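SAMPLE LOG
Freezer: B-3
Tube label: C17
Construct: single chain, 155 aa
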Amino acid sequence: MQRKMILTASLAALLGAATLAQADSDRLAPERLDEVLAQAGEFGFQTYEEIEVKSRDRVEVEGWLDDEWQAEVSFDLASGESLEEERKRRDDGAWGLSEAEVRDAMALAVAEGMTEFGELQVDRGGRVEIEGVDADGRELEVRSRGGELLEVEHD
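STRUCTURE (predicted):
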C-alpha cells in the first residue's frame, strides 16, 4: 500500500514537472510583456502585428518600424540582444497595435483569467487574439477589438 502511494506521488510530481517545463518553454507571464515591449521599442518598433513566445527567454516580434519598414525580430530577453532580424520595405502603410493598445489587450486577457501567454496577434481590422493558459493550465483564447472584449474560449 505504501509503495502504491509513493508510486502515485512520484507520478504526480513527474507530470507536474513536465507541465511546468512545457509552460516554461513556450509561454510567459503577462508581467514579462514589459520586457518584450521595452526591447522591441528600443529596437524601433512603432506598431505590433504579432508577439510570439518561442521559449522562456526568446520572443519573436513582428510589426512596423515606421510607415515603410516592416520587421520581424527575435529577441533574447535574458541578454537583451536581437538574435535574428528580417526587414521588408512595403508601400501599403503601417498597421497594428501601439504599445498602449498591446498592454490594453493583455489587460483584458488577464482579467479573463490568463496567467501565461504564448502569442498575441492582430489583423488589419484591429481584431486581437491572445492565446495562453489560465491558472489551471487550460488553454485560453481571448479576442478583442479597440479595447472591447469580443470572445473568450476555453479548451
